[in-house]
Amino acid sequence: MEELLKRPTKRRGFYVEMRLLHKNGRQQQQLEKNSCFKYYKWVLWFSLTLYFFSSYFISHNKPIPLSRTHFSNSKSNLPSRALIESVNTTSLQHPTRGALEDLKIYVYELPSKYNTDWLSNERCSNHLFASEVAIHRALLNDDVIRTFDPYEADFFFVPVYVSCNFSTVNGFPAIGHARTLISSAIQLISSQYPFWNRTHGSDHVFVASHDYGACFHAMEDRAIADGIPEFLKKSIILQTFGVKYQHPCQEVENVVIPPYLSPVSVRKTLEKAPVSGRRDIQVFFRGKMEVHPKNVSGRFYSKRVRTVIWRKYDGDRRFYLQRHRFAGYQSEIVRSVFCLCPLGWAPWSPRLVESVVLGCVPVIIADGIRLPFPDAVKWSDISLTVAEKDVAKLGPILDHVAATNLTIIQKNLWDPDVRRALLFNDHVQKGDATWQVIRALSQKLDRSYRRSEVSVQ
Ligand SMILES: *[C@@H]1O[C@H](CO)[C@@H](O)[C@H](O)[C@H]1NC(C)=O
Ligand SMILES: *[C@@H]1O[C@H](CO)[C@@H](O)[C@H](O)[C@H]1NC(C)=O
Ligand SMILES: *[C@@H]1O[C@H](CO)[C@@H](O)[C@H](O)[C@H]1NC(C)=O
Ligand SMILES: *[C@@H]1O[C@H](CO)[C@@H](O)[C@H](O)[C@H]1NC(C)=O
Ligand SMILES: *[C@@H]1O[C@H](CO)[C@@H](O)[C@H](O)[C@H]1NC(C)=O
Question: For the Exostosin GT47 domain, which residue ranges apply (predicted)?
Answer without folding.
Answer: 101-399
